Amino acid sequence: MIYISKKTNIQDESTYFQTNKNKLPIIDLASEIFTENTEPLLHTNARFWIVKKGSALVNIQGEDIKIKKGSMVGILPWYYTQIKEVTEDLCMDVVVYDLDFVNILFKRTNDLFMEDYSLSNLVSDNVYVNLLPEEEKEVKAILDKLKNEITKYKKSDKFSNHMIFVKFMEIVVIFEKNIDSSSKKKLKNKHDIQIFHYIYSHLNENISLKNISENFYLSQSQISKYIKETTGLSFSSLASMMKLVKLMGYLNFSQMNLEELSVILGFKDPPHLSKFFKAKLGINTSEFKNKTNSHARKVIDLGKMEEITSYVFKYYYMDLKLEDLSIKFRLNQTEINNSFDFYLDKSFDSYLTYVRIINAAKILLIKDDTVTDIAYTVGFNTTKTFNRNFKKIYGINPSDFRKKLIYQTEIL
């Protein structure tokens, strides 16, 4: 538990995530209590605040918002926040995560269905939502499970990293479905998410309306009617679609053979699975794998992209150009730039500028160098260009930024 007294600081989490980028990201949890106002705080990692108790007026990137019990707030990396007025002691859970890597996983998942998805855009466009009481309970249950999986992950449980990401996705889904949902919530009832989640989680058991009826204490006709009105599908069609989606995901992301997938998804045997898949998509499983792998090659693979971004982060202060990366990594410039856009929602030039600015922000707070010296140190050719880009990200000029914030090495 962390009690925040009056102080101004930047959260330095450079050693927070001991992340192997070939695995899922480490997503961590903390609890915070605010009993009084704070000075501006700059966060170096993304997070969600889930307010469990209390209320306050907070400022996020210059905008005042009121948060209270049930509020869920999204904070992106290098956002600054300030508790301006605590009307009732504020107690919140904090989910801290590696935005870039989570974004990559979300994009890879949604790319399967040709949908453009960006968690960073989702959060930046919608700073906070207010949860219903039953949603608060749902989030609490997810966080309890997430905490348990994180504990197991830190004890080297090789499967927990997958569950960590699944639980995090559930949190994001709850956040997303509450965006502009004043009218949508009227269409929801307390069973909707649970029923669909239950079906999806029990596909391997040849789930039936009878199973659902017994679990939710509703008649089979009520459930069937609800599914039809909500999705436009019959129960059997919905279950088939869920099986197909799950199967497509396994084929695209796992190395499991058809026999293993038959067991996981409740098919009698591999031939039945293959027949089902071809009937739905018109191609067999091997053709599908070849097709999705071909689509994935339109951008650089994740491992190579990690090498490139690490190189940029290491040598950001040099006169780096797209041509330099093309020569060093033996890739064409268009492919590299497209990959920056796909993985990081930024062109190469925008990403390089971003890296320079966030490093400049740190230098401003830990050294006494002049703004001009820092501008040249991080790779800008003119102070004017540096100031313009700095203000674009932080909303204030470098000199005022230095006056408002001091550096602190505490993680949370």
From TrEMBL:
Residues 193-291, 306-404 form the HTH araC/xylS-type domain. GO terms for molecular function: DNA-binding transcription factor activity; sequence-specific DNA binding. It comes from the Bacteria. InterPro entries: Homeodomain-like_sf, HTH_AraC, HTH_AraC-typ_CS, Tscrpt_reg_AraC-type_HTH. PROSITE patterns: HTH_ARAC_FAMILY_1, HTH_ARAC_FAMILY_2. It holds the Pfam family HTH_18. This is Transcriptional regulator, AraC family.
